[in-house]
Design brief:
Largest sheet: 6 strands, mixed
CATH architecture: 2-Layer Sandwich
CATH class: Alpha Beta
Number of domains: 1
CATH superfamily: Peptide methionine sulphoxide reductase MsrA
Radius of gyration: 15 Å
Structural class: alpha+beta
Shape: globular
Strand content: 15-25%
Strand order of the largest sheet: 7-6-1-3-2-8
CATH topology: Peptide Methionine Sulfoxide Reductase, Chain A
Helix content: 25-40%
């Protein structure tokens, strides 16, 4: 990994659409999907769905901070989730579909908290996005990786126009 790149882990319901959406953002170098911050090692999709593993379906995002700021990524992420929903996004419900921002660098925590505070100003209900350090992350099975690229008509809770919006989004404040 290029030492100038940074990573953040975003849980936003079903990881198929969240991954495709985030991968469209300029400055994001790579994405993959997996299971984060759970209580078991190397869980399978079936275990995450049925065995109360505590994992969230999550997208690992590797990005170039010279091209896109974390604040900008988070603003776009908020646009495709319901930030006040608990354990539910779209038609999917269960703890694996909770929203979460999991950071690996302590310096990102303040950026994330400030971003959540700004987001809260737009809602009467409390923001339900958990913000925690990343404890663990296990890559999901290969058939989940780039799922919507392999299955263009696959289920997704994110509207198709949002994917286009992500492609066109530019962070004009980077150096």
């Amino acid at each position: 990994m290029n030492q100038n790149y940074k990573e953040i882990y975003l849980a936003g319901g079903c990881f198929w659409g969240t991954e495709k959406y985030l991968a469209n953002i300029s400055g994001i170098i790579s994405t993959d999907v997996g299971y984060a911050n759970g209580n078991t090692e190397n869980p399978t999709y079936q275990e995450v769905c049925h065995n109360n593993t505590g994992h969230a379906e999550t997208v690992r995002v590797l990005y170039d901070p010279k091209q896109v700021r974390l604040e900008f990524i988070l603003t776009l992420y908020y646009d495709v989730i319901n930030p006040t929903s608990i354990n539910r996004q779209g038609e999917d419900s269960g703890t694996q579909y909770r929203t979460g921002i999991y950071y690996v660098e302590e310096s990102d925590k303040e950026i994330i908290e400030e971003s959540i505070s700004d987001l809260q100003k737009n809602y009467d209900k409390p923001i339900a996005i958990e913000v925690l350090p990343l404890r663990n992350y296990y890559l999901a099975e290969e058939y989940h990786q780039k799922y919507l690229d392999k299955n263009p008509n696959g289920y997704c809770h994110i509207r198709k126009d949002k994917f286009e919006k992500a492609k066109l989004a530019k962070d004009d404040t980077t150096k």
